[in-house]
Amino acid sequence: MASHSTDTLALMELAIQQAKDALQFLEVPVGCVIVQDGKAIASGRNRTSETRNATRHAEMEAIDILLEQWQRDGLSELEIAEKFSQCSLYVTCEPCIMCAAALSILGIKEVYYGCANDKFGGCGSILSLHLQSSSEQPHGGAKGFTCTGGVMASEAVSLLRSFYEQGNPNAPKPHRPLARQATD
Amino acid sequence: MMEPKLANTLIRRLNQIAPLENLRHVKRIRKRSLEGGKSQLSVILCLACEDDNQWNCVPENVQELVNSYQLSPFIAQVCKYAASSKEEWEEQCKLWPTSYHPLTYNIDGIMGFSEEDSQSIFSFMKFAVELAKSSKELLVNAAVVVDPSNKQITATACDQINSWLPPESKHGHLFPALEHIGYEYYEVEDVQSSSITSPAKRPMTNLTNVKNEDKQVLHAKDSCSISERPYLCTGYDIFLVWEPCTMCAMALVHQRIRRIFYAFPNPKAGALGSVHRLQGEKSLNHHYVVFRILLPGELPTTGDTVAEIADKDVGADTLQCPLTN
């Protein structure tokens, strides 16, 4: 942790606050901030339960705030692309494949994340969508971005742990109890 | 036929020197009960030749085993393919024992489609293609979400990738960078709406409609029991004109869609086989089954309805399904 600058840690602390907010609302505790010129310009936290939409991850929430704002401001496609290329994302958990792909399409500059996401991670764990070469742009315009993991990872993990201890009230009933009934 | 205590040694040795390739469902050993509580063991030595002299292809080291253990070889018939039902398996075992692993998942289409299913799949795909064509944009993807239990469309939508941009910046690339975000919008909105609605035919052609409908539906959901609606898109099918990109393919994993049907591969960005292959990523917590529908215009030489399993590992099935009218 000593290797991360105080600025990095301060920005990740904002993301952690978002994750704690999510936990309070019984959401999977993942939070993020999008940063331009050292300043957090948008934040997001998981809203999958509230929206009943499994794609409303923290990153999508923050991205949509910026897209809506910039579209309202009348920015062109190119200007928005230029904006995102100056932005960094600080997120408590490695972006999933969907979010990593979205960040790559948007052309975000860099991503700092807390803990790795060894089931869904799109920045090294399962796929490495951040490593696409920007010069060739082989994947329909998707660009690579620099990625730094392990920033305040233990805080991110302990939040997730406290969530999974309390369980997800919206998940379907597990199948195993049925098997137990059958043997009763 | 052999002594029971030799069975383990013999089978290990035989699996080394004469493995039964492509016959993994066939049990190597057969046990038959004899009168007086005794049993008789038979073991498969090797495959017999198909020509007249069936003993010609016994390998030398197998012959050595036969000699040293004083086995009495005979020719037996076994089933070439694994049983696909319990009844079939029981029949097979009369010939020679085989193993039977019933599918632990139940997804229609893996074992082929009925004529009726083929027709409805094809008509939903045609609907998606028409939807894409009705859009003013070039190369637009269209999606139709279907509840297969009653063959009702629960949501439809097209790419909205250019809808918010001034006309001069619209262009007809397949999937240029920023346009994906709209692509995401359509899929996310679309999938969400289907996840919270009770099945109802709701023809929608643009994002504004989708959003408006969503709001109405959110009100409506209070009057309908939550338990009647599936968890996310569990059990639903989606028909897409184009193979989805990585972002959208992963969104469909998150939404627990059951089957994806698409017509055209997307070699630059497709994530169901072209660039990535999410249905084969073992670590993901949900796996849909992917079918490519070959439309009549691009049918290969065979004209009949065919469902061919290209890849048999569970959760990674890519099925080719050329469908005719």
UniProtKB/TrEMBL annotation, chain A:
GO MF annotations in UniProt: tRNA-specific adenosine-34 deaminase activity; zinc ion binding
InterPro entries: APOBEC/CMP_deaminase_Zn-bd (IPR016192), CMP_dCMP_dom (IPR002125), Cytidine_deaminase-like (IPR016193)
Any one biological process term the GO annotation gives: tRNA wobble adenosine to inosine editing
CMP/dCMP-type deaminase domain mapped to chain residues: 6-134
Keywords of the record: Hydrolase, Metal-binding, Zinc
Protein name: tRNA-specific adenosine deaminase 2-like isoform X1
Automatic annotation (TrEMBL), chain B:
InterPro entries: CMP_dCMP_dom (IPR002125), Cytidine_deaminase-like (IPR016193)
Keywords per UniProt: tRNA processing
Family: Belongs to the cytidine and deoxycytidylate deaminase family. ADAT3 subfamily.
Biological-process GO terms, alphabetical: tRNA wobble adenosine to inosine editing
SUPFAM superfamilies: Cytidine deaminase-like
Name of the protein: Inactive tRNA-specific adenosine deaminase-like protein 3 isoform X2
Domain CMP/dCMP-type deaminase per the UniProt entry, residue ranges: 119-275
Record-level Gene Ontology MF annotations: metal ion binding; tRNA-specific adenosine-34 deaminase activity
GO cellular component: cytoplasm; nucleus
Source organism of this protein record: Tripterygium wilfordii
Domain of life of the native organism: Eukaryota
Gene3D superfamilies: Cytidine Deaminase, domain 2
Source organism phylogeny: Eukaryota, Viridiplantae, Streptophyta, Embryophyta, Tracheophyta
